[in-house]
Amino acid sequence: LKDILRWNRQMVSGSKDILLQRCIDGHMNGRLAVCPSCSGRLKLKDEDGETILCNGTFDEESMVRQQCFFTCKRADAPRLQPWFTEEPSEEEKEEMEEAIKGASAGKNEDALSSIVSLTKKMKWDLSEPSKMKKTAQNLLDICIESGKIDLPRDPKAARMAIGKILLQNKSAARKEICQLIVDQIGVKKSKAEEDSKQESMASLCKHPSNGPIMEAMLELGTLYFAEGNRNAGATYNKVANAVKELNMEITEVNAKGLGKGKTKVANIGKGSAEKIYEFVTTGTMEKLEEKRANKG
Question: Considering the entire predicted model, what is its pTM?
């Protein structure tokens, strides 16, 4: 059973019954593809056999497993074909790897092609600071126009993100700069992907309305881990878990109380509660936008 799962790039931990369950699922439905939220490995939930969940990703730089709370029904899980019952050939193994990479690469190629095409209409001059500033603004406008790049919501943070890439790569060719924007800032999820992610977050929270807050705290933790700040990353992961377990809806009225006094919730401090309040009242957090702008 483990050999069959390995041949299909599936999880091999668990009891014999669990392994058999995964093999049957794969034979009937195909190989589980990568997580649409974080590109981690998906697996069949051991307890019910009907839910697919993500195991998160392991960041080798920070040596920390970054949590992902993506779940979906078995019938809705992303799949790849075929399911191998014999060891695949070297050619088939290469095709499998390409299929796994292609799950996210396709979107990236589309975004890159879109912004490269749009930059052909603009003046590109990085020869001096004033002209670089103008080029950065034009490039930002193009990224907004394309609708493909996951820019920070705050306009100032978005300008900083583009400007930083240009400043650090002044001698790079136009297409290389565009590739760095795609790689470092990231590609925006489709509406269907975003809706699926939000539904997943909501379903995991004891009060569904708290899903966006949990998602924001997880993202902030991930960005801190990426910087090498493991303490802050772990702190915000704990805050996300605390939000997940709350039975009440977090509102403008009760948010600050989560970090102090008689209404304090374990693993949520005063600073975290203030960030939650900021998110509830504005839809984002200044610190989150700052980290998004600085990533990469």
Answer: 0.65
Phi and psi dihedrals of 14, rounded to 5?
115, 175
pLDDT digits (tens, 9 = 90+) for 5-60: 999 999 998 889 999 999 999 999 999 988 877 778 898 888 788 889 887 887 66
Closest CA to 68 of 247, 200, 208: 200
- The bridge status of strand 31-32 relative to strand 71-73 is unpaired
C-alpha atoms less than 13 angstroms from C-alpha of 74 in its C-beta half-sphere: 15
Q: Are 208 and 200 in contact (CB under 8 A)?
A: no
Residue 275: name the closest of 222, 218, 199, 200 by CA. 218
d(CA 123, CA 109) in angstroms, rounded, equals 23
DSSP string, the chain: -HHHHHHTT----S-HHHHHHHHHHHHHH-EE-B-TTTS-BEEE-TTTSSEEEE--EEETTTTEEEP---EEEGGGS-EES---SSPPPHHHHHHHHHHHHHHHHHHHHHHHHHHHHHHTTS----SSHHHHHHHHHHHHHHHHHHT-B---SSHHHHHHHHHHHHHHTTTS-HHHHHHHHHHHH-BPPPHHHHHHHHHHHHHHSSSGGGHHHHHHHHHHHHHHHHHT-HHHHHHHHHHHHHHHH-SS---TTTTGGGGSGGG--TT--HHHHHHHHHHHHHSS-HHHHHHHHH--
6 vs 225: CA distance, rounded Å:
30
The CA-based angle 194-197-13, given to 5 degrees, is 140
